[in-house]
Amino acid sequence: MTIIKDAAIEVSRVIKVFAEGTKKEFLALKEVNISIKSGEFVSVVGPSGCGKSTLMLMVAGLLERSSGDIRIGETLINSPYTDVGIAFQDHLLLEFRTAFDNVILQSEIRGLDKQKIQTRAEELFDQLRLTPAKSKYPRQLSGGMKQRVSIARTLVHSPSVLMLDEPFGALDALTRLEVRTDLEALWLEERPTVLFITHSVEEAVGLSDRILVMSPSPGEIVDDIRVDLPRPRPIVLGESPEFASYVDHIYGHFARMGVLHGFQPPVKQ
Description:
Blueprint: E1 9-20, E2 24-36, E3 41-45, H1 52-59, E4 67-72, E5 75-76, E6 84-88, H2 99-110, H3 114-127, H4 143-155, E7 161-165, H5 173-190, E8 193-197, H6 201-207, E9 210-214, E10 221-226, H7 241-256
Parallel strand pairs: 3-8, 3-9, 6-7, 7-8
Antiparallel strand pairs: 1-2, 1-4, 4-5, 9-10
């Protein structure tokens, strides 16, 4: 295991308020406090509109917070953080560039050593089983291949922090399992700090060291769950009673918060 560098994330007393017109304000996030150790894989789950993506964008420095502090390592986040890889549900690939050229675009944008980036890109294409797609354009790729290219682009400059916002949301169930396993394998190699936003409780349990559960809007952290499952995790986790216990615990939170109706946790024998 190699941790790239100190990239602990500290979110202290962060509040986000959006203005709606001249007089009305919308409280998106209550006071949020989060500590993520360098090299941890932490997921955030919660109902739609609870502020998960807003939180991630503030940590990345892409959205201004209303109050509180955010630090990554020793850096106080007041502007976009550069040592980061970000991926969204939409792959955002440039249609006029090949898959490989989309990935090495990082060297042009960031002014990095082109040869090093190309070598790293070759490695990622091999690890993600993307080699046959190198010279293809996005329109020629399946959804799963596009998202793998997006992940390669996110990782090619070896960032210390990954921020992933529903990166598997547009994929079918089988492809999600495959790409999830690919992501875990790549993360295990270098251990960047990961903030992973997802609606899928099962996906969060399958990937995470810890899971932060958020309440409905205005969002706040209602539970911080450590996932004590061995790695690498099997591609199918559903038959494990330990896995089911974590999933049921989180769904129980949603049932109590009134965002999941009809859920009855199993009675423990």
